[in-house]
């Protein structure tokens, strides 16, 4: 029995079904396969197009930690709001962060109570606001993996070059490799392979994933974001498994160069260095997993400029984002999913960003699932 | 902010060699191309943009496929384009 007939709205459905058939052929009877899609963008595609419906029952996809908004711990949101409350501060942030709850407020709540936290598209917009407001202290809430870190670093270099001394960044950049390693080391999850992040890899390239194949014997295939990319990636992983190979492969070579973007890596390295450890929401402290501003650029580092409370806040009891970020739970298995926790009133971060697994599932997945359930019932 | 969006280079700005004027689904904005230093870039080339910076050069067919995909995802892409519209990088 296949489930694929329920997804008919997708324009490449023929190609997808052909791939699905080849995927099914490669699955050994009686064996269960569990693949992690590391990147939130992939989660979005998978739910949006109901890709799980194309897969045999024996293949399960689990979500990874690759949603930068989702992994920011509440204490850092509180610290950002603390900065925003200081005299003469204009805080700037990507729109995605605005509804992320801290222990009390979100950025939106804080603004209603008088802070000036502005949404920007690019760190360069934040720098521009600094130049236009020389009597204010303009701070950029820097978040993201290696896809956005080079942009933040370039902006700091630009601020240094132009002498924009009223500009600083609150650096919350995280690095993907230690998070993957933490998941591989966690005892609760047995994985058979990885759908590797696409855009992070345009910067870091494919080599950093080597340890996953060598030390952990799991194949990883870097994947593009379209539905067919993901199905083809699953096919490539299964081919490796069926041939007893375990390698890093690049399904997305039309965008991701094997060596990444060396210039971008160089710029990150010039401005930032690894922190000894950093707290990830739901995953706890992971060593060498985040970036901070180097001493040479201390004057652009909000953590040095403002005396941050830096209080660690435990996640709300009801929230199971950690399990969702580790792929141990599916979004709908969280007790508050869709009831107390919705995109309008998020309890956890995974419900805030469109890349968050809970938000993606809430917006698209449940329809697919309902269809499947209705069909199995009839 | 996580969406990589393709744009077509209209011109490299003479007065700012690390900026290019780029067309993204009809929105024309300045995009920083400093991270592609060393790559030849000119009118008609396609780039993948994250938060105002070009991260990689891509070919036209990839760009078209990516755009079609992004247009299909709806709201998240609309939000990204609206944010880009507000942006005035210089
Ligand atoms: S439903 Fe809400 S609280 Fe539960 S895991 Fe998802 S985001 Fe976290």
Provide keyphrases for this structure.
heterodimer, A: 378 residues, alpha/beta, Rossmann fold, 2 domains, five-stranded parallel beta sheet, 14 helices, 13 strands, globular, disordered N terminus, disordered C terminus, B: 90 residues, alpha+beta, SH3 type barrels, five-stranded antiparallel beta sheet, 2 helices, 29% helix, binds iron/sulfur cluster
Short description, anyone?
The complex is a heterodimer of chains A (378) and B (90). With 378 residues, chain A is an alpha/beta fold.
Describe the structure.
The complex is a heterodimer of chains A (378) and B (90). Chain A is α/β, with parallel strands linked by helices and 378 residues long. In chain A, 38% of the residues lie in helices and 16% in strands. Chain A is built from 14 helices and 13 strands. In chain A, the strands form 4 sheets. In chain A, strands 2-1-7-8-9 form a 5-stranded parallel beta sheet. A 4-stranded parallel beta sheet of chain A has the order 4-3-5-6, with helices on both faces. In chain A, helix 1 runs parallel beside helix 10. The longest helix of chain A has 21 residues. Chain B has a single domain, classed as SH3 type barrels. Chain B contains 2 helices and 5 strands. In chain B, strand 2 and strand 3 form a beta hairpin. The radius of gyration of chain B is 12 Å and the shape is globular. The mean pLDDT of chain B is 86. The chains are: A alpha/beta (378), B alpha+beta (90). Chains A and B meet through helix 2, helix 5, helix 6, helix 8 and helix 11 of A and strand 5, helix 1 and helix 2 of B. The site of iron/sulfur cluster has 14 residues of chain A, from helix 13. Iron/sulfur cluster binds next to helix 13 of chain A. Chain A: It comes from Planosporangium mesophilum. Chain A: Keywords: Iron, Metal-binding.
